[in-house]
Design goal:
Length: 396
């Protein structure tokens, strides 16, 4: 067996998932990296300590375990460097703190992951950053919102819960013309279905909590930067002391090995469920980018290699209170689906989506938005469970 890994750069995504991030010859041939629990790292002498002239210097600055995960993410993202943080939310707040200063203006997509909006409206605003939300459909039209002090444009596609697509390439090109850094929350697609840095994004953000973990038992975020922005992102990571834990890093690397297989299954099952829902007369719409009927479908088809397992549908109702009762009846009748936050694990989940914080892309007044995460169960069982929900909500 040769140690040559030159072939890996041009290999397929499942091959990369199996072979990136760690070299077994570096640790006695064991296939997986050791889990290094560490704060202190010892130096051989005072001079080495003073000059920090060894690969590892302190636990917060990386270990062989966290490095293995970071190198795997870099290979998938095509990034110059990746930092690990303790949650997907921290994977948003840390780069915002890295690149924004008092007096700056930030443009945030209105269909953003809701806790990101909370961070922007509270802490970021308190620190003197002016936050403005924009319509995900803007594309090149984002130019008219850019001001002399606009420093950051945050994108997320598809949008959380309502799945709006964005023209990431067009937005990045305009933002760069005005000297802005472009960040993208790519949690839904993972780097297997969309590679943000190839479309002009500077900073790619992931809740590794979702598909990389895959088992609803780990919280972690990854932030990957292109060469131009890596230095500043890495510096912020060190300055804030926000780092990834060893056992969690190990589990995320482990999850990556099977992520391609799992995503493929989520992809197919979710699309089958979405088409089943679309054909029903008691559904007012299905928000899934891979459906031809979805407004953002053309963008999705142009830019994405696949769709993951999360989408929403509209349960028709007379008004807001009616929508709430119908949604609750639907959710309470489910037996296979769990009612819980987050997604990306093996089990199906359902949520009645709350869109009350939206300022531009507001939720419907005559329907409830139900978000589904389609897990790895058999599709027939998933459909049978949804049928229970429809039966119950019809009675309300
Ligand atoms: C879940 C999620 C996050 C946050 O991840 P946590 O690890 O739960 O903090 C960020 N962005 C998106 C799009 C998410 O769905």
């Amino acid at each position: 067996m040769s140690n040559n890994k030159d072939w890996l750069a041009s290999a397929g995504s499942n091959t990369q998932l199996c072979h990136t991030g760690y070299d077994p010859t570096a640790y006695h041939g064991f296939v997986n990296p050791p889990v290094v629990h560490a704060s202190t790292v010892l130096f051989p002498n005072a001079r080495a300590m003073e000059t920090r002239s060894q690969p590892y210097t302190y636990g917060t600055r990386g270990t062989p375990t966290t490095d293995a995960l970071c190198r795997a993410i870099d290979a998938l993202e095509g990034s110059a460097g990746t930092i690990l943080v303790p949650s997907g939310l921290a994977a948003i707040s840390v780069p915002f703190l890295a690149f924004l200063s008092a007096g700056d203006h930030a443009l945030i997509v209105d269909s953003v992951y809701s806790p990101c909006r909370h961070f922007c409206d509270t802490m970021l605003t308190r620190l003197g950053v002016e936050v403005e939300y924009y319509d995900p459909d803007l594309g090149e039209g984002i130019e008219r919102l850019i001001r002399p002090n606009t420093r950051l444009v945050h994108t997320e596609a598809p949008g959380s819960n309502t799945m709006e697509m964005q023209d990431i390439g067009a937005i990045s090109a305009i933002a760069h013309r005005h000297g802005c850094v472009v960040t993208m929350d790519n949690t839904w697609a993972t780097p297997l279905y969309f590679k943000p840095l190839q479309h002009g994004v500077d900073i790619s953000i992931h809740a590794a909590t979702k598909y990389p973990s895959g088992h609803s038992d780990i919280l972690m975020g990854t932030v990957s930067a292109n060469a131009e922005h890596w230095g500043r992102l890495h510096e912020a990571n060190i300055t804030l002391g926000i780092c990834g834990a060893p056992d969690d890093s190990y589990q995320i690397l482990r999850g990556l090995r099977t992520m391609g297989l799992r995503l493929d299954h989520h992809n197919r099952s979710a699309l089958a469920v979405a088409r089943w829902l679309e054909a029903r007369s008691d559904v007012a719409g299905v928000l899934h980018p891979a459906l031809e009927s979805f407004p953002g479908h053309a963008l999705w088809k142009r830019d994405f290699k696949g769709a993951s397992g999360v989408f929403s549908f509209l349960l028709p109702a007379a008004d807001g209170p009616g929508a709430r009762s119908k949604a609750h009846a639907f959710l309470d009748a489910l037996q296979l689906f769990g009612l819980g936050w987050s997604w990306g694990g093996y089990e199906s989940l359902a949520v009645h989506v709350n869109l009350s914080d939206r300022t531009i892309r507001k939720g419907p007044t005559n329907a409830a938005v139900i978000r589904l995460q389609i897990g790895l169960e058999d599709v027939e069982d998933i459909l049978a469970d949804l049928e229970r929900g429809f039966e119950a909500s019809a009675k309300v």
